[in-house]
Structures are given as structure tokens and as C-alpha cells.
Amino acid sequence: MEGIDKNRVYIFDTTLRDGEQAPGYSMNIEEKIRMAKMLESLGVDIIEAGFAISSPGDYASVEAISTAVERPVVASLARALKKDIDAAYGAVRNAKHPRIHVFLATSDLHLEYKLKITREEALKRIEEAVTYARSLCSDVEFSLEDATRTDYEYMARVVEKAIDCGASTINLPDTVGYSTPDEIKEMVSYVKSHVRNIDKAIISMHCHNDLGLAVANTISGIEAGARQVECTLCGIGERAGNAALEEVVMALKTRSDKFGFHTAIRTEEIMKSARLLSSTTGVRISPSKAIVGDNAFAHESGIHQHGMMANSMTYEIMKPESVGVIKTNLVLGKHSGIHAFSKKLEEMGYQISKEHMDDLFSAFKKLCDKKKNISERDIMALVENRENPDEQIWALDSFVVNSGNRMTSTACISLKKSGSDKIYQEVASGTGPVYASLRCVEKIIKHPFSLEEYQLEALTEDRDAQGEVFVKISDRSGVYRGRGVSTDVIEASILSCLNAVNKMLSNHALSDGGSAVNMSFENDMLLEHTDKRGI
Ligand code: KIV
Ligand code: ZN
After folding, report:
1. Nearest atom within ligand 1 for CA of residue 176
2. Pick from 56, 307, 402, 503: CA 20 to 30 A from residue 131's CA?
3. Which residue among 174, 175, 187 has the greatest number of ligand 1 atoms within 8 angstroms of its CB, and so is best to mutate?
4. Digit-coded pLDDT (tens) for 44-82
């Protein structure tokens, strides 16, 4: 395309759509907005905010994200159907840069068995859908689902038609993660040399990771001429996930000598973005995960440490600071003032507003009374655990728990309800202190729930370490995650439960309020999208 930097690769982030579809990664609307703002600060070019037709929740999130961010394009996915395109446009129309992302499968396998239509019928649907989408929105992307198993000649006809109808981005997904880097190169080269009007569109890659080749395939696509890549933070997504944003971006940056491409990603924000995703979803980052895992920059072996001391280039191909891993000497403790505390937060890459800083500082001081050494992990927990007071329906006031090996555990918990000064108190017993505490919470909120998962981990190695508890609770409306941190593991358990309870109850409040839009939503329309609301 004319006037664009030929070596610039556009980053299309689909953490909030393809990523969020994966079991265990669902987020509520506030969490998605927070994540979208983080992605904006990270520098992604396009945020795929959701699949508007799939549910009222998705529609509302796409709509909210559209006005929550300014610089990036905001896209919503749509099948090649008028009602999907209407929903997608309805949800993104207030974005500064809206995009409708239309898709239809083009491989014979999908046409024959899933869609039960011929190639010609599919071509007609694509023509109608892209033309209609383009009549609503000037930025339309078309994806040939299962492109890597699509006949090349037919693919060229589809791409040409979609561009003629107004699509300015053509996405060639490796939907089932089946392809290899040389095949991707061949496919993109074929499209570049056989599609008459290809100079009017940007080619995009969207690679799934079923064979662990998503990043390699994505980069291969770029080398062959793709200039948009669709990826997710930490590679989350359907089945084995999508190409990991941080890996694609850092491969291009670290090996710019080989590839010669660049992105607009502020790489120093990568770590913070990955941590926000992890703390939001409650899914831990594997320690050996490339770029963002705890061990990615750790050097344990003597030989490595010796080499590192002589010259860090011996074993370090990227500077930890370049992805936001900062090792500072600024140690905090009970004598640290707000100035040192805010400097530390700044060094760790957090930008905290003045009002939040005061709250955080008082939480920090309380922690200093309980714990001698405050580690970076403790500070991260303080920042990441801040629950928005507006989302806090129930908050912990006080608790007393009795437990022992010759008695039934009992708990007495007092909770405060938002908007009232009244204290609600209940007593319950159980086979253990956590069980008894959760029973108390359940009695106070008068809303039964089941505990699906409970994980307790120490944040640091020291004896006075804080415990971090992740829970998953469920009721008939779905599964909700919660997280709590405290030097007292029972308190951490109650806090994590309340965190999940607040999400559950606010979801009920939302669904009681009904949908703002007059349309029917479809949860079960795609095989791979069916379990989305279940988790
Ligand atoms: O994997 C895929 O093919 C997709 C499309 C809907 C873009 O996610
Ligand atoms: Zn996908």
C-alpha cells in the first residue's frame, strides 16, 4: 500500500476475543476494560475487543472498550451474516477507529461438513457480507477461516473478491495450527503473486499453536509479506492458544539484524501487561514461559553466572529492562516514606494516580507492620489486588476463626455491604477453617455457591511470606474467579472468596438489568465458541 512504512508490522491483539474464548480466561466487563487500556499503553495497533453477537456481555464489553481507548483500532468479530455485522458495527461504532472483522471458512472441509455450502455459495456470501460491512464502516477485515487448508486457486478468488468489495485487511488464519513455516511462506507468496488487487490490502497472519509453531509461522508470514499479525498476550487462546504477542514482538526486535521489521510496541510494558492478564484471570504464567516467565532472565548455573558477570551478552540476548523486568536496589521497609514508595512503583513500571497512591501507601504501611522485608512480589500483589471499590458489593470487616486437630472449625465473620454502614455477621462451622469461613460468607450474602477450585501459594520464600489464594466458585450462572493476598492465609481465603462473590453478584445485577440492545444473542453458533460462557 502506498505511503506506508514497508517494514512496519501492525500488531492486532486478540487477547480479549480469541484469548478470552479459551476455558479459564473469561473476564468481566471491568476486567476487559482494564486490559484494553493496558493494551493501548503497550502500543498495540488493533484491539479485537470481542464477538459482539455472541452474548449481551460481549456486546457490552466491545461497546465499552470502544470508548475506553483512543489510539488503537477497535474491532469486533462477525460471521458473514447481516445480524452479526449489525451487532459488530453497533458495538464498535463509537470507537475513534472502528473495524468490522468478518470471517467465513473457505477450506473444502469446512464448506462441506460445517457450513454445508459450495465454494460458489461461499463466495457469494463473502461478497454480500463484506459489501454490507463496508457500507457501515470504512475499515473492514476479512478472514478466510482455515485458510491454510484452503485450495490456493480458490483462496486467490476469495481474496480478490473480498478486496473488490472493500476489505482492506485480508487475514489468512492457520485456524487449526496445522501449517509449517515454509508452507505459510508459500501461501502468502501465492496470494501476493496471484491476487490482482492485493496491493490494496494488508495481509494478516493468525496462527494457532497446536503444533507449537504459531510464532514461527507468524514470523514466516511476515517474511513473505504479511504486515499485520494477530496474537495474544502469553499466547492464550483456543486449544493450545495463539501466537504469543511478546514472543513475536521480541523476536522481531532482538533479531532485527535478520528480519529488519519493527512494531510500535513499547516493549518495556510487556511484563506488566502479562502480569495484569495473569492477575486478572488467575492463571499463572509458567516459570519457563519465553520473555515473561519468572525464569526467563534467571541464571542459576555457576558457568552462566560467571559468564554473565564477565559480560551479560554471554548468556543474555535481551536486556531484562527491555521487557519491563527491573532489578532495583531500592529496598522498602517500615521506615520508607511515600516518596520512596512511589519511586519504587515508578521503577517497577506502574503509573499510579495520586488518589490511588494514598490508598496503596496506607496498605503498604499496614503490611510493614506484619512483615519485615517487603519484596517486589509483595508490592506487585498490593498493586494488582486493589479491587475497585465500586465493584465491591461485600467487603471484609473482621473475622475470628477457631480450628484445631481435636475440634470442629468455627468461623465468625463480619462483612460490610456497599452503600450501607450496617455490619452483617454470621457464625458457621466446618471440617476446616476455610470451609467454615466460606459457609459464613454464603450465609451472609444469602446466595449459595460451590467451591470449584482453591489454590494457596506463598508469594515469597521468607517465613513471614504473604499467602496468595486463588478460588473458583460457581453458581447456576457460571464460574467466577477470585484472588486474595494476606500474611494470614485464612484472611487471604476470605478475601479471594469475596472477590469472586462480588463478581458473581455484579454479574447477576447486570443480567437482571437486561440488555441495552434489541437483538438476539447466540452462544452456541460456532463449535469452538460454545463453552465460552460456561467458565
Ligand atoms: O482461528 C481463526 O480462524 C479465527 C478466525 C475467526 C479469525 O479465530
Ligand atoms: Zn483463532
Report:
1. 1
2. 56
3. 175
4. 999 999 999 999 999 999 999 999 999 999 999 999 999
Using the CB atoms, write b or e for 259-282: b if 16+ within 10 Å.
bebebebebbbbbbbbbbbbbbbb
Amino acid identity for residue 66 in this structure: S
Q: Is the CB of 141 under 6 A from ligand 1?
A: no
Q: Which amino acid is at 413?
A: I
One-letter amino acid at 405 equals N
pTM of the model: 0.83
Edge to edge, the sheet with strand 394-402 lists 394-402, 409-417, 423-430
Residues 68 and 33: beta-carbon distance below 8 Å: yes
pLDDT in tens, 324-382: 987 665 678 888 889 889 888 887 767 788 878 998 999 899 999 888 778 888 888 88
User: Which grid cell is 6?
Assistant: 514497508
364 pocket-lining for ligand 1 (C-beta < 6 Å): no
User: Grid coordinates standing for 527?
Assistant: 463449535
Give yes or no for residue 21 CB within 6 A of ligand 1: no
**Can you tell me which residue has the cell 564477565?**
310
Q: Is 51 in the pocket of ligand 1 (CB under 6 A)?
A: no
In the DSSP assignment, the letter for residue 226 is -
